[in-house]
Design a protein that fits this description.
Blueprint lengths: L1 H19 L2 E7 L11 E4 L8 E6 L8 E6 L2 E7 L4 E7 L10 E6 L2 E6 L2 E7 L7 H11 L5 H14 L6 H8 L2 H11 L10 E8 L9 E7 L3 E5 L6 E6 L4 E9 L3 E8 L3 E6 L7 E4 L4 E7 L2 E6 L3 E5 L5 E6 L4 E9 L4 E8 L3 E6 L2 E7 L4 E9 L2 E9 L4 E6 L29 H12 L1 H28 L13 E8 L4 E10 L10 E5 L5 E2 L4 E3 L8 E10 L10 E4 L2 E5 L6 E5 L2 H10 L4 E4 L12 H10 L14
Antiparallel strand pairs: 1-28, 2-3, 3-4, 4-5, 6-7, 7-8, 8-9, 10-11, 11-12, 12-13, 14-15, 15-16, 16-17, 18-19, 19-20, 20-21, 22-23, 23-24, 24-25, 26-27, 27-28, 29-30, 30-34, 31-33, 31-35, 32-34, 36-37, 36-38
Length: 642
């Protein structure tokens, strides 16, 4: 009885879980042997009969040849071999004539293969690139038997390491061969011309002149030589060419080519570039801290997945809106668009077998799969409008259908205006004073604007005069000369009569450190006493804050205060052990330290540049200082603080 009740409870729990789920399990085949990624999955009505089919660019692992598979339901309808690995697949309309049957485009290597009714229709090849002139010269010498295959190998390796123009496929294949096979390869290919062909890395579609679902679309190609090409859907000519600083790997577009469009390209250098119509170069750049693993455009928000297991939301101008951390590594991303409810969400396939669906940063749903997800696709399949296609790492195929009664409820992490914003405010009625003020502003608007502009100009003039006075008196905390890019900030602590004075020095240059800087204090010795008035500043690294601390003792019992100035340690006052033994000089840290070592009784204090000093300094020391402290013709400026 206990066992029977336990099995009944498990069955009830499974039934309740199935009932609470938003998805119907239509098909699961762990041995479907489909190995692809999201860019190579496309759902389209390839025959124009209303029956949507799934086109897959299969990578063909385990030594098998890459191929194009077309599935109708769970079965493979057609299969054709590909000469190279597929990069992307897309369905688009080539013209306005009837019947409106979309064509299938598959990017593979340097070519785009176009199929209509599952038959080869057109092949577009990327234009050839100019070869490396040094490489061309080497193969010409090999053709005339001026160099042997070993010399050719060494020189090609040197070109590959240093040249900016990459080698051709012929040279790269030659460098991969064994030494015994190189001579035969050279004899076979030395008469062939050198060709350098670009490779397609990504592809998407862009509406040409209308935003309708059944409007013509242009193909947008991203190539290995850092270019974006827009192809005409009828003649397959290049309509536009744009350059990027990096190799594009993900593309998202919005708008129409003939009107206005915006294109976002995620590149291998970790940046996302935004381009607009009639722009040959990117207009905005979004810098990521890690490599992107996916790019989806949902409701004018660019959602980017990174290798740090994060989803980031950006505007088209590069402003970050939000960040969501994932529980596992992101393997693939795609868009979920439920047109009947106007919903656009982002699907993220994780390495732990989960498919997470987000609307902005709000989690809508979690789907768990038996294996890690490698590709996702959502749309109309067969005659069902909302179908989810999932492929797993082991080659499995999962088909789920969204229930017609399913509603995605956003969680606690919902982004958007708070509920209080939708409440109607109790706006007070217009008073007589408000109406009179409005009439006054309407009648005397010009005079009020002129008065405002006059006050604004006076404010700017006073601010400029105050800034000039600060520069002339050297009381500004930031150095005004590029020769000494310093910033000083002083903090006084204590209630008296002893205070703690802390100077914060910062090097404001971008890359140049400052070495050998001295700092001294100028103060009234009748009012203040400083145990340490001279500092040797360490090496100032740009951007770091260096605190210098000393104590100030107030000697006046009447509460009299004065200014303490901070200056570069160029004017130094040396005082002897006896009264009157002092000398003021323009010096450096090395000379002061040498003088203190030779005459231990002498101390160092700050002094003004007009101080002349006494004449009782030892003659040997004075002569050494006069010799070493010759004027440097270097301006002494105060960084000043009160």
């Amino acid at each position: 009885m206990a066992a029977a009740s336990s099995s009944d409870s498990e069955g009830d729990r499974a039934e309740s879980s199935e009932a609470s789920s938003k998805w119907l399990d239509a098909h699961y085949d762990p041995m479907a042997n489909i190995h692809t990624f999201s860019a190579c999955l496309v759902l389209a009505d390839l025959h124009g009969d209303g029956e949507y089919k799934l086109a897959v660019g299969d990578l063909g692992p385990s030594g098998r040849q890459p191929c194009l598979k077309v599935l109708k339901g769970p079965t493979v309808l057609a299969e054709s071999a590909l000469p190279a690995l597929p990069a992307a697949a897309a369905a688009f309309l080539m013209g306005q004539h009837e019947p409106r049957t979309p064509a299938l485009a598959l990017a593979s290597g340097p070519c785009v293969y176009v199929y209509k009714n599952l038959r080869p229709y057109f092949k577009f090849s990327l234009p050839q690139l100019p070869p490396n002139p040094l490489e061309q010269d080497l193969w010409n010498q090999a053709k005339e038997d001026q160099i042997d295959h070993l010399t050719l190998k060494e020189m090609l390796e040197g070109i590959r390491e240093k040249a900016e123009v990459p080698l051709s496929v012929q040279s790269l294949r030659f460098l991969q061969l064994e030494l015994s096979e190189m001579e035969a390869f050279v004899n076979q290919h030395k008469s062939k011309p050198i060709k350098r062909q670009a490779v397609i890395t990504t592809m998407t579609t862009l509406k040409k002149n209308m935003a309708d679902e059944d409007a013509m679309s242009c193909l947008v190609l991203g190539t290995e030589n850092k270019e974006l090409l827009v192809l005409d859907p009828e003649a397959f000519t290049i309509l536009a060419k744009m350059s990027l600083p990096g190799v594009p790997v993900f593309l998202e577009v919005s708008g129409q080519f003939d009107v206005a469009f915006r294109l976002a390209a995620a590149c291998r250098n970790g940046n996302i570039y935004i381009l607009r119509r009639d722009c040959k170069r990117p207009k905005y750049c979004i810098e990521l801290s890690t490599q992107p693993v996916g790019l989806v455009l949902a409701h004018k928000v660019l959602v980017v997945g990174s290798t740090q297991d994060n989803l980031h939301g950006f505007t088209h101008k590069g402003k970050r809106l939000w960040t969501v951390h994932m529980p596992a590594a992101i393997l693939t991303m795609n868009l979920l668009e439920q047109r009947s409810r106007g919903l656009q969400a982002v699907m993220a396939g994780l390495a732990n077998g989960e498919v997470r669906i987000y609307h902005d940063k709000a989690l809508l749903n979690v789907i768990r799969t038996p294996d890690a997800v490698t590709s996702l696709c959502f749309g109309r399949y067969g005659r069902e409008d909302n179908t989810l296609i999932v492929t797993t790492r082991g080659g499995g195929l999962i088909i789920k259908i969204l229930k017609r009664t399913a509603v995605f409820a956003e969680g606690a992490g919902e982004v958007g205006p708070p509920p209080a914003q939708a409440m109607k405010l109790n706006v007070p009625r217009k008073t007589r004073l408000y109406v009179d003020q409005t009439l006054r502003e309407r009648e005397a608007g010009t005079a009020m604007h002129r008065t405002f502009q006059t006050d604004l100009y006076l404010l700017r003039l006073r601010a400029a005069r105050a800034y000039v006075r600060a520069l002339e008196s050297s009381l500004n905390p930031v150095s005004a000369t590029a020769r000494e890019p310093l910033k000083l900030h002083a903090v006084v602590q204590g209630l008296g009569p002893t205070f703690k004075l802390t100077l914060h020095l910062q090097n404001t240059s971008t890359a140049r450190p400052i070495l050998g800087l001295l700092v001294c204090f100028l103060y009234n010795e009748v009012l203040y006493a400083l145990p340490r008035a001279f500092f040797k500043v360490p090496l100032l690294v740009p951007g770091l804050n260096y605190p210098l601390e000393t104590f100030v003792e107030s000697l006046s019992d009447k509460g009299i205060s004065d200014i303490i100035k901070v200056k570069r340690g160029e004017n130094i006052l040396l005082e002897g052990p006896e009264t009157g033994q002092r000398v003021a000089c323009k010096t450096s840290e090395r000379t002061v330290l040498e003088a203190q070592e030779r005459s231990p009784g002498w101390t160092c204090r700050s002094a003004g540049s007009q101080y002349t000093g006494g004449s009782e300094t030892p003659a040997s020391m004075q002569s050494e200082m006069r010799t070493a402290l010759r004027p440097q013709h270097q301006e002494t400026r105060s960084l000043g603080t009160r």
